[in-house]
Amino acid sequence: MMEQEFHRIKRLPPYVFNEVNGMKARARAAGEDIIDFGMGNPDQPTPSHIVNKMIETIKDPRTHRYSASRGVPGLRKAFVAYYARRFNVDIDSNTEVIVTLGSKEGLANLASAITSPGDVILVPNPSYPIHMFGFIIAGAALRNVPVIPNGDYLKALEVAVIHSVPKPTALVLNYPNNPTGITTTIDFYASIVDFCKFHGIYILSDLAYSEVYFDGNPPPSILEVPGARDISVEFTSMSKTYSMPGWRIGFAAGNKKLIAALARIKSYLDYGAFTPIQVAATAALNGPQSCVDEMRAVYKERRDVLIDSFSTAGWDIPSPSATMFAWAPIPDQYKHLGSVEFSKLLLSNAQIAVSPGVAFGEHGNDHVRISLVENRHRIRQAARNLKAFLTDQNILNEKLYKERVVIS
Q1: What pTM did the predictor assign?
Q2: Which residue has the higher pLDDT, 69 or 99?
Q3: pLDDT band at residue 104 using 50, 70 and 90 as cut-offs
Q4: Which of 13, 132, 391, 399 has a CA positioned 20 to 30 A from the CA of residue 201?
């Protein structure tokens, strides 16, 4: 029997979520009621007018044939119209945009298209795993740039470039950021574009949470920066905006050379999403947008209930201004455990499932990510479970402390 290890598989660490997911499955099998804030999987139904367009289109047998790898023209034009009204950016539907099977697929395939083994890629840390592992699979070497609240990102970026040999090929950005919820400004993007132009570095911007914002101004696009398209491509997704995660529709837009490279790779790998899905996605972009406002209102309400109820229970969590996640610092008395062991403790003692922060990079190990995918009643139940757990732990810690004092 051959025992050869495959090079690319060797570079992928064991999936951090597996241990917690296994515990979660066993607890449910034992009849426990697990309140699941783990995966960022939207629980709201896809709006009915989008579903109805899918049903209408699928009845035409002509739509059952191979589709277009770049995306059907009507969908690309609908996306161009979205960028025009949302960001005041004019995109060419033929050369500057391509439909992807979700932003995750687009990022991974572009990584394969532009990366040679040993190329250096600058990635945020903590960050959505595909930002790192899409390039690892492609054979790249990574240099992490820390993403922290109030951090001097540009200074960290300068240090990363100075210490990178060879010179970095590309920089990945993600705002609003998953998992931290950090947002940014058009001035920040402008400074990054200037920096990367000077150093000859491409920019890959992930804007999947462009419409999931609660406070202040809507998140900007890097393509709003004059000249950004000379070096930048941006990824967006239908998954969160229209509650369409399983439909697998996203977009890449921007630099013609990068779009052409992605189109070339995709032409060998897929025939595009099922045509009725693309037609329904066109209806989503061109149709009434009240569903987007409703989505935003639901997540905002859940955010407020979570922050308030968990604070009352004894866990203070910063309120995110965007995304469907709360980036929760591990309480001081449990920080020594790290994010995986703390997540397991929450699951076994409070029936609350969260994502370990280390799954998003080593800079996330003192946090856990809480997804806003349970309704407000379940969030309040989680807070009650949390309060009971923390109270029991405090009583236990006090008892152990008194015992130590007596012994000493």
Answers
A1: 0.91
A2: 99
A3: confident
A4: 13
